[in-house]
Design brief:
Length: 396
């Protein structure tokens, strides 16, 4: 029997084998949310561009208040006004966000003053820099604010706007073809006949592709024959950057994805040391990269999360790694698998993991009812209080 490949090695193999994204387009910030930057972004300005007030109050030269506690108001500066230099021994009425006049070095909030006409008495000691937000406090001119490969979040869009950009260069969206296989599969909405089950992996994979930020170019279902699989893969390859398939990758004679690839491309079949999800295919078919996920629904889910998500990201130009694992304690005992790392579907409460009773790779509901994967390395027995890595579903 060939040795099973550790899952992190398989991730590296897949990433290395995939070409880098190259096609880019320029989009306005209005259309940039969720897109992947294809350029590093460097700020050409200081943010804020000039020192401004953090409070509504009075701008002063702090040393003027060493000799007196009362100053007269010589100008009024609202946000958006251009101030004139502060006349010595006076103060300026100033509002939050307004530019600090030359000569002033502190702002006193109005609650700490007594106002009588234009005479302001300062009730507390004032230090230089009090309540002043210096130029470049948020972003210094010349600083890199975002790196190519970043998928733009709402926060990133705000940052881009704060340095005055109206458009950015992004990679064109990745087009993903989705293939499901199997004579036993019926589309939801149709009655089931003997021997049939519903095709859940199709909608599952499409939803995973979309929630990872990519586009589904085409979906096809192939019955269990080399001809049907070949026709579907050809159609998918014609309009996709990459294909994700489900099923047909095991050793049975009804598993035709492998055979089709062997005839029309190059097959790299990996037996990966994970459970669920052992048989994973990485291949090129009709010149298009293909990731063949095992058909058992939990195996499909786990292999999408661990491999396909990162493969799609690489092909889309996105810098992405496995999510950061959290450490959790276990409240149960379980004998470790001899050769495969297990990804148990578990509930986590207050840092303590409890497994779902149903851990079959054919069962999908368990994943919907739990919080994420407990990663149990091969040959590790679980006992109460032992600690393992936990990957929440919502981190994928
Ligand atoms: N003799 C062996 N048999 C199997 C092995 C093995 O090493 N030797 N590996 C097992 C493991 S592990 C897995 S995982 C599966 C992988 O099988 P395939 O990827 O070839 O998938 P299928 O045989 O087509 O289907 C497996 C299972 O999943 C159901 N399925 C498939 N597609 C869908 C779908 N779109 N929606 C819902 N359910 C789907 C299918 O009905 C089967 O029950 O092989 C083991 N066998
Ligand atoms: O490893 Mo398979 O993925 O058990 O179901």
């Amino acid at each position: 029997m060939t040795a099973l490949m550790p899952f992190k090695d398989a991730i590296q193999h897949i990433k290395n084998a995939l070409p880098l994204a190259t096609l880019t387009e320029r989009v306005s910030l209005d259309h940039a949310l969720g897109r992947i930057l294809s350029q590093d972004i460097v700020s050409h300005i200081d943010v804020p561009p000039a020192a401004n007030s953090a409070m509504d109050g009075f701008a002063v030269r702090s040393r003027d208040l060493q000799d007196t506690a009362t100053l007269s108001v010589s100008q009024r500066i609202a946000a958006g006004n251009a101030p004139t230099p502060l006349t010595p021994s006076t103060c300026a009425r100033i509002f939050t966000g307004a530019e600090i006049p030359a000569g002033a070095d502190a702002v006193v909030m109005q609650e700490n003053t007594k106002q009588q006409n234009d005479q302001i008495t300062f009730l507390q000691a004032v230090k230089p820099n009090d309540n002043i937000r210096p130029a470049g406090q948020d972003i210094a001119k010349g600083a890199q604010v975002l790196a190519a490969g970043k998928r733009l979040s709402a926060i990133d869009i705000g940052v881009l706007a704060s340095i005055g950009l109206t458009c950015v260069d992004v990679f064109t969206p990745l087009k993903v073809g989705v293939l499901t296989t199997g004579d036993e599969l019926q589309q939801p909405g149709q009655p089931l006949t003997a021997g049939q089950i519903y095709n859940s992996n199709g909608p599952l994979i499409e939803s995973l592709v979309i929630s990872a930020g990519h586009q589904v170019s085409l979906r096809r279902h192939a019955m269990d024959s080399v001809e049907a699989t070949q026709t579907a893969l050809k159609e998918l390859s014609d309009c996709s950057d990459i294909i994700i398939s489900s099923g047909g990758v095991s050793v049975g004679e009804e598993d035709h994805v492998k055979a089709t690839i062997e005839q029309n491309g190059q097959l790299h079949l990996w037996k990966i040391a994970i459970k669920p999800g052992k048989p994973l295919v990485f291949a090129k078919v009709f010149d298009t990269p293909l990731l063949g996920l095992p058909g058992n629904p939990s195996s499909t889910l786990v292999t999408f999360h661990l491999f396909a998500r990162l493969a799609l990201a690489k092909a889309a130009g996105e810098s992405l790694n496995l999510p950061k694992a959290l450490r959790v304690k276990c409240d149960f005992s379980r004998k470790g698998n001899k050769s495969r790392d297990e990804f148990l579907r578990v509930h986590v409460n207050n840092g303590v993991a409890t497994p779902h009773v149903q851990q079959s790779s054919g069962a999908l509901l368990a994943a919907s009812q739990t919080d994420g994967y407990l990663h149990v390395p091969a040959e590790h027995n679980i006992s109460p209080n032992s600690e393992f890595d936990f990957y929440p579903f919502n981190s994928f």
